[in-house]
Amino acid sequence: MMRVKRYDDLLEELIREILLRLPARTLVSLRSVCTSWRNLISAPDFTWNHLRRSCLRDPSLTPLQIAYYCRFPSVGMRVLSVQSMMENPSEPTRLDCFRGPSYYSMVGSFHGLLCMFDDDGSFKISHAMLWNPCTGFTFKSPEISGVADVRGFGYDHLSDTYKLYGIFKKEGPSGMESSTRIYTFGPTSSWRRIDDIPLVVLGVPTDDLCTFGNTTGVFFGSKKACTINWSIQHVVLYFDLGKETYGHFTLPVRESGYCTHLSVLRDCLSLCYEDTTTRRWIMWQMKEYGDPQSWTTLAMIPFHPRLRFMRHPLRPLRPLYISETDVLLALSSNFQMILYNLNDGSVDFPVIDSSNDNHHSLTNSYHYTPSFHIYHESLVSPHGLQSNSSQVLLRIMKPKPKPIIS
């Protein structure tokens, strides 16, 4: 006999369906309505359903943001809305600021979680922190000796875990010592020693970080592979997060140029480099991850006088995102956000409202801002983890102007 659902069950399902259609930031506020709503919104299955729905059906539920950590004029995280910059570039996009108690460097982001490294100021001890800016969730890893010169963060879908990779250097009895470690974010996890990168096989000096096109690895995730990727001379070196093994494949053949930059665009591993002969930035996409034959030219972007920083000519153009209408959002070598239309070649420069940051522009941050990361606002926190750190980054709000009394 078919069971007839009670009115209360139907009402609960209706409420759940309505809440699943709301943006993540709104749901965070609604957790305080009542205990039942808080329990529902905080439940892991609701969190994941909301994330999947937003990614597949309605991206507006988890708006895209750009996050970067800056040490000047004040220490903290800065966040910019991708939608605001792309839809209304002439209207100022507000720069949100979060003040932090320590010095951090960003390693990566996934599922709305930002992973950062901190140090004690002496470069002898490090720890990592996982932070969800939308919910305020923070988790701090155990300390580890040394500083990670090469690192990467990603998600292993086979084990449903977030992993942090680092090559740590520290002062030893006979000089600098190096060891490769991995940390799986979990309630009882610790740093584990793993095999070092087989740079000798690639013909690369093991003590020369300049061989890395990017010392912070780029995470690529799909059903077939979850890897952290670095460009090293003529190849992409990757670390498989599931198998915890290394591999490599070749980069596209380049006639000239240097200063490569890896990223993930439209779910494909992508490469951008400066061609000094033709005076253009060349963008490539790998249509089938791991297959060098699938490298395809995506765009050729002519040099623009506002896109190069002559004091640091080795900094590449950094592609961040491509819209459905083929507009590329990128960061220039002089730390200026740009919009480049891949169809007609038009260029635009979004206006940034930095009043929350003492009117400090991005172009003045090149010494203090090593990496920028795209992330989705979400409700996600790793399964089994509870916030264990009091080092919460506080949002700096712009004071409202006082009313004018006539």
TrEMBL record:
InterPro entries: F-box-assoc_dom_typ1 (IPR006527), F-box-assoc_interact_dom (IPR017451), F-box-like_dom_sf (IPR036047), F-box_dom (IPR001810), SCF_F-box_component (IPR050796). CDD domains: F-box_AtFBW1-like. Residues 4-51 form the F-box domain. SUPFAM superfamilies: F-box domain. SMART domains: FBOX (SM00256). PANTHER family: BNACNNG10540D PROTEIN, F-BOX PROTEIN CPR30-LIKE. This is F-box/kelch-repeat protein At3g23880-like. It comes from Arachis duranensis (Wild peanut). The gene is LOC127741057.
